[in-house]
Amino acid sequence: VPTQRAASTHAHILRSTLPYCTNLRELQLFVRPRDLYAVEALNTFFAKTIAPLPTIHLCCAPPPLGDSVRDPMPVVTDVIREIASRRHLLHALSLDCCYTIGHAAAKELATGLGPTLQRLALDASLFQDWTVLASFPNLVELRLQNTLMSDADLRRLLPHLPLLETFAVHQVSSITCAGLEPLARLHQLHTLEFSRCVGIENEAVLALARISSLTTVRLVHIDVSASSLEILVRDMGPRLISLSVNAISTAHASSL
Question: Could you point out which of 13, 34, 91, 120 has its C-alpha 20 to 30 Å from the C-alpha of 247?
């Protein structure tokens, strides 16, 4: 944990160097739950530059012991508000270990980035209300990892993302076949990835074969039977461009 002086030094370095990055295309920012220097630096950077900044990766340190990961962290909320203020310029946003993102910050994200955000990745980050993602109708890529989204949340959300091309889910146990039904109506969807999702089983894999636009499938550590794999490959074979199936038994692999 940095001292106050160290945090002040970080703020000074960021404030004095970021404005020179006039062609910056990607910014990765690591913040601690109670550090304010990142907020100050972003504020200064955004105030002094008008250059487009297409991609921001925000990574947060774990909250202090005793803090609930379900409670929004003030510094994270402030940083997200600064990102949201970068209206109509950001195309890709990655939130890592931001834990719960409160209603107010989520609304500001939707208002500021809604028209242009195309790629969103959430790792150990969740919204108190997932319907906020419906405010990003131009999303072409959505990646969920180590987060909490229910089948009901997913069914409500997917119809609002008609341009979605890539949907990736990693270590999300709460999503099952029941939540994937709207995927078949996303006609731009061509890539699906599921990794270590205990709720994705044979029924879900069979449902993938019914998505006519799908050309790329990646299944990593998914419990699927040989017969389901056989049906998937048989029905999708003519249109498959890429198939990746990892960590399956010899019996399952024989079906390929």
Answer: 120
